[in-house]
């Protein structure tokens, strides 16, 4: 008889456990999705193409994702997570110079992250648009998340006397939307601007919001 407490031997294939193989296949599918959707678009990327590029079977695809849209959502979530972390780290790294320096560094970091990862940025900013109501809600939630972060930066600026006290959530949404559209235009090759010029344009939008908010505050006095 076999002792019930005895652990079953872990089955391996080519030196890898079943779980390691599954994780590797999932990662290959995500990489294939990033390359194909980021270059050819979501509509042109079939499950067969994803499986071929990822070197997995259709059966293995459905072990990890119920649909192309679920894979697209996973790519979107990863982009948002990584971009958000870049923005936070940039703000914290420049925060000792004041909230304005930190905010401008954070906006520059977001622009730079998108331009350094054009395929990932295209997936997040272009290919998720109009896919489904569920994907649209995911997009809106991400916009609100970044807008909330901008509002937190604005609150710090208000505490330092740079901005008047106000609710900056809607201003944050406006800034995120404007920045996204500028980056989409740059990714499509339509701006003719260098990376440095794009960074200055995006930080310039925020500086314009600051000046506008200051002007409105003066009018109320």
From TrEMBL:
Any GO MF annotation of the entry: DNA-binding transcription factor activity
Keyword Methyltransferase: no
Pfam families: TetR_N
Record-linked Gene3D superfamilies: Homeodomain-like, Tetracycline Repressor, domain 2
Keywords: DNA-binding
Record feature DNA-binding region, as residue ranges: 46-65
UniProt domain HTH tetR-type: residue ranges: 23-83
Domain of life: Bacteria
Protein's UniProt name: HTH tetR-type domain-containing protein
Organism, scientific name: Alkalilimnicola ehrlichii
């Amino acid at each position: 008889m076999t002792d019930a407490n005895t652990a079953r031997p872990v089955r391996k294939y080519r030196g890898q456990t079943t779980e390691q193989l599954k994780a590797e296949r999932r990662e290959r599918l995500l990489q294939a999705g990033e390359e194909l959707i980021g270059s050819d678009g979501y509509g042109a990327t079939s499950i067969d193409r994803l499986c071929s590029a990822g070197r997995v079977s259709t059966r293995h695809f459905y072990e990890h994702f119920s649909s192309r849209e679920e894979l697209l959502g996973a790519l979107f979530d990863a982009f948002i997570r990584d971009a958000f972390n870049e923005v936070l780290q940039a703000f914290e790294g420049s925060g000792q110079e004041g909230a304005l320096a930190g905010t401008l560094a954070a906006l520059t970091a977001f622009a730079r992250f998108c331009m350094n990862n054009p395929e990932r940025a295209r997936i997040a900013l272009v290919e998720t648009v109009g896919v489904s109501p569920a994907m649209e809600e995911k997009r809106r939630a991400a916009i609100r998340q970044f807008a909330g972060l901008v509002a937190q930066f604005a609150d710090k600026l208000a505490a330092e006397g740079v901005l008047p006290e106000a609710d900056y959530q809607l201003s944050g949404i406006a800034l995120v939307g404007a920045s996204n559209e500028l980056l989409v235009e740059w990714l499509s090759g339509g701006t003719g601007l260098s990376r440095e010029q794009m960074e200055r344009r995006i930080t310039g939008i925020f500086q314009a919001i600051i000046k506008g908010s200051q002007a409105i505050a003066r009018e109320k006095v």
